[in-house]
């Protein structure tokens, strides 16, 4: 049996709790839940249940959040404990080394620790070894798609990475699958109209510049690179910011959206140039062992797997010595259900090690 | 450290030995190698090396193959041992339960045990539990592609399978990607010409009827079904045999190839009918929890991911509750290097459990 300490039970965290507590083959016990303000620590005799943790977090038994106390509680139990960070907080990410050295395992979809400063990344790897603890973060790239687990297998079997290339943003996938389709409609939408539709469908961040600036994709490329043994850094990676320069200082999302049509001619020309070469536009991240890693808008031939993408799917292509024609993984790369699924897969990795005959 | 006992060191087995002995992060020791006639068992002091096992298998120290002796030798060592079955033998497959009950782990690309009689499948699962041993066979479906590991995660997290559909034969992938391309050449090849080309490239079995009868794909569908908890059986699965009835009794491969043009009109008509519906032909295997599992030639729209397939790639689409738009894995699904890679991934699964902090 594994204990779980959940930090940040929002949309993804709640879904994760719901998925793991339904497991019929393995037993997980929630011994702590904490949001940014309050936390509940279980009594040994009464683990938190799917229906009780929310109520308890709002009840008088909840105390002000203190992650040091939470970790001490988690480490004091007889059974091993996995701390599940469902936040996107830098402060929580910085706790991983301490937790790992206490022997607490960590799983998380939080990209901060793995795409932030390299010393933190290095310390996490070192702490996991020292604490004989496991840290997994499949959902930081492509949510539940088997991407980091596949990369780990490629690396640990001694394969050589030639190139890792993919579409890692559901938002930007949707945007360019529609704006630059292999089979465009007779009256195609402008770039700003396509962004506007994506925004109204809830596919973009509240301010679409947070998608268009490429930083979310950049974090995923940094994580992939580091998992492949290439010490990429967010501050030096080449990232094409698609927010037009004159719109970067627009005071808010509404002002930005109002001005965005100014950029339509620019994107229409890029699209037209691509079409002339029988290509479509896709916003891709690329890990290149030869130093040319990048995040950029690029042209792909109509027959390329990236061109045929639909909806808001993610896709990744691993080109390696053993897979000269790439190994491709494709599917939904965003959303609470698939993110929680990826975290559950990480939890299974740990439970299979600790209870191999469950 | 893990010991390895290799049975059937042919093309795949040799490649596997070569890959694992190159590992820089984990240590594996070969303590037995056996082909169908002779075997070598290591002395504790002298494990077999990449350069020595072949010589030793031909030397006077080699003894007649006796798998019971080999298993006893493997089980008598202090370290855990993985028996690696690189044969396609029914007789070797039938030994798995005994080995597992002795605590020997098993990994293999041999489909026989997992697609054969259900009682053997059941006994293997039971034996693994009783012996607290692991059995993995990723390479039985799609070689090194992360297919069975992904399916295992979907099942163990409690996701519900709606449908598993894929192109599981590199040969038949090549055949129909070329015969029924979304962008056919101006003078397309006939079906028999396409088979003939595939044969001359070494993509088919010596007798192409062994590909066209669909039995290899059927075995993979049975394995996928069983891994998904659906007890499919080779003898009752609906399998479309593409060998024309009048050619099934042709005395040999040459006679078959000579007569195959008789079937060209039939396949040309199927292709033409598909094209009229803006579709291509693909030979697919399908696992359907509602009892309609099958292996058949089917039509796919030009925009479907299966239509865009090139070369001899395999592809699999998992449609589930959590992935209503399917999770797709694609890439090379045949060849010694990728098959051995899939076996190496299985070996890592076991080593990560037994040596979690290596």
From TrEMBL, chains A, B:
Keyword Amino-acid biosynthesis: yes
Top-level class of the enzyme under EC nomenclature: oxidoreductase
Substrates-to-products reaction catalysed: L-homoserine + NADP(+) = L-aspartate 4-semialdehyde + NADPH + H(+)
Cofactors: a metal cation
Positions annotated to bind L-homoserine: 205
Pfam families reported in the protein's UniProt record: Homoserine_dh, NAD_binding_3
GO BP of this protein: homoserine biosynthetic process; methionine biosynthetic process; threonine biosynthetic process
Residues annotated as domain Homoserine dehydrogenase catalytic: 146-348
Molecular-function GO terms, alphabetical: homoserine dehydrogenase activity; NADP binding
Keyword set includes NADP: yes
Pathway(s) where this gene product acts: Amino-acid biosynthesis; L-methionine biosynthesis via de novo pathway; L-homoserine from L-aspartate: step 3/3; Amino-acid biosynthesis; L-threonine biosynthesis; L-threonine from L-aspartate: step 3/5
UniProt: NADPH binding residues: 87, 111
SUPFAM superfamilies tied to this protein: Glyceraldehyde-3-phosphate dehydrogenase-like, C-terminal domain, NAD(P)-binding Rossmann-fold domains
Gene3D superfamilies, sorted: Dihydrodipicolinate Reductase, domain 2, NAD(P)-binding Rossmann-like Domain
Active site: 220
InterPro entries attached to this UniProt entry: Asp/hSer_DH_NAD-bd (IPR005106), Bifunc_Aspkin/hSer_DH (IPR011147), HDH_cat (IPR001342), HDH_CS (IPR019811), HDH_short (IPR022697), NAD(P)-bd_dom_sf (IPR036291)
EC code(s) of this entry: 1.1.1.3
Annotated Aspartate/homoserine dehydrogenase NAD-binding domain residues: 8-138
Sorted UniProt keywords: Amino-acid biosynthesis, Methionine biosynthesis, NADP, Oxidoreductase, Threonine biosynthesis
Residue positions binding NADP(+): 8-13
Family designation: Belongs to the homoserine dehydrogenase family.
Biological role: Catalyzes the conversion of L-aspartate-beta-semialdehyde (L-Asa) to L-homoserine (L-Hse), the third step in the biosynthesis of amino acids that derive from aspartate (the aspartate family of amino acids), including methioinine and threonine, the latter of which is a precursor to isoleucine; production of homoserine leads to a branch-point in the pathway as it can either be O-phosphorylated for processing to threonine, or O-acylated for processing to methionine.
Protein name: Homoserine dehydrogenase
Organism for this UniProt entry: Powellomyces hirtus
């Amino acid at each position: 049996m594994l204990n779980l300490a959940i930090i940040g039970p929002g949309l993804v965290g709640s879904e994760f709790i719901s998925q793991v507590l339904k497991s019929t083959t393995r037993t997980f016990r929630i011994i702590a839940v904490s949001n940014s303000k309050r936390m509940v620590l279980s009594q040994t005799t009464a683990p938190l249940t799917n229906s009780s943790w929310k109520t308890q977090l709002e009840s008088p038994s909840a105390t002000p959040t203190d992650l040091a106390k939470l970790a001490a509680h988690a480490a004091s139990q007889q059974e091993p404990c996995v701390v599940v960070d469902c936040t996107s907080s830098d402060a929580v990410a910085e706790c991983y080394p301490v937790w790992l050295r206490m022997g607490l395992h960590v799983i998380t979809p939080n990209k901060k620790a793995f795409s932030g400063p390299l010393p933190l990344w290095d310390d996490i790897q070192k702490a996991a070894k020292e604490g004989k603890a496991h840290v997994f973060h499949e959902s930081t790239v492509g949510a539940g798609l088997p991407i980091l687990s596949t990369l780990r297998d490629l690396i640990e079997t001694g394969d050589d990475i030639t190139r890792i290339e993919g579409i890692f943003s559901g938002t930007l996938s949707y945007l360019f699958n529609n704006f630059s389709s292999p089979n465009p409609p007779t009256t195609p939408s402008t770039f700003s109209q396509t962004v506007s539709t994506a925004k109204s469908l809830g596919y973009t961040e509240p301010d679409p510049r947070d998608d268009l600036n490429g930083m979310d994709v950049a974090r995923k490329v940094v994580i992939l690179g580091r998992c492949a043994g290439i010490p990429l850094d967010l501050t030096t990676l080449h990232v094409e910011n698609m927010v037009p320069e004159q719109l970067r200082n627009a005071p808010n999302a509404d002002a930005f959206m109002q001005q965005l049509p100014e950029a339509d001619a620019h994107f229409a020309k890029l699209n037209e140039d691509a079409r002339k070469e029988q290509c479509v536009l896709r916003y891709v991240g690329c890990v290149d062992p030869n130093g040319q890693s990048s995040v950029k808008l690029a042209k792909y031939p109509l027959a390329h797997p990236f061109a045929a993408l639909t909806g808001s799917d993610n896709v990744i292509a691993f080109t390696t010595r053993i897979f000269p024609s790439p190994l491709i993984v494709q599917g939904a790369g965003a959303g609470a259900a698939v993110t929680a699924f990826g975290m559950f897969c990480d939890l299974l990795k740990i439970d299979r090690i600790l209870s191999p005959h469950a």
